[in-house]
Amino acid sequence: MSFYRGRKVLAVLLISVLLLTTACTPKTPGRFDQVQQESSKQKKGQAVAKTATQGGEFNKFFPKSGGGYDRVYTQEKKGFAEAKLKKAGKEVAVLSISDTTSTPDAAAKFSKSTKKIAGYPAVEQGKTQSAILVGKYQVKVQSKATTFTASDRADWLSKFNLDGLAKLK
Predict the structure, then answer these.
(1) How far apart are CA 168 and CA 53, in angstroms?
(2) Strands across the sheet with 90-99, in order?
């Protein structure tokens, strides 16, 4: 009987020593830790400019729900706001407004545009995205359903309160 008891005590003692030594050893830095520290300290090249408009400011410029479509806000952060467009409960498109202050290349693509939607320069991005530039703001509609065409995207772009957005500073 004391033999089994001795083995149990020895097992508990060995496990305790093992846990104590592994818990107290310093953590070795991972391969991404140094890069993370450097990028966190970096000021230049940050994702969002300090002067970018708050995403909540954009919500009032989105088209309203109606005509069988529901608009559901999904993301709002500094310089960007997004809403899903649903019909019969299925997502058919994504609507967004972004401040190009943080991404000047986004605005540059409109300089060679010959197409206009609602009087603003427009571009097609691939086969599923249409965008216009309103001042410093890019307004985009991205098809999520094959039934949502380029013509539908242009219609929805013109449903935004573009004149109100143009006055936003």
Answers:
(1) 9
(2) 69-77, 80-87, 90-99, 137-143, 129-134, 120-125, 115-117
Nearest to 99, CA basis, from 83, 82, 80:
80
Contact call for residues 62 and 83 (beta carbons, < 8 A): yes
* Contact between 153 and 95 (Cβ < 8 Å): no
Q: Are 143 and 149 in contact (CB under 8 A)?
A: yes
- Quote the radius of gyration of the chain (alpha carbons, Å): 27
Q: Is the backbone of residue 93 left (phi > 0), alpha (psi -120 to 50) or beta?
A: beta
As given in the structure block, the two tokens for residue 48 are 């969002």
Taking only the tens of pLDDT, the chain with its 169 residues reads 566 778 888 888 888 887 777 776 666 767 666 666 665 555 444 567 787 888 889 999 999 999 999 999 999 999 899 999 999 999 999 999 999 888 878 888 998 899 999 999 999 999 999 999 999 999 999 999 999 999 999 999 999 999 999 998 7
Query: What DSSP line would sit under 89-146, residue for residue?
Result: TEEEEEEEEEETTS-HHHHHTTTT--EEETTEEEEEETTTEEEEEETTEEEEEEE-ST
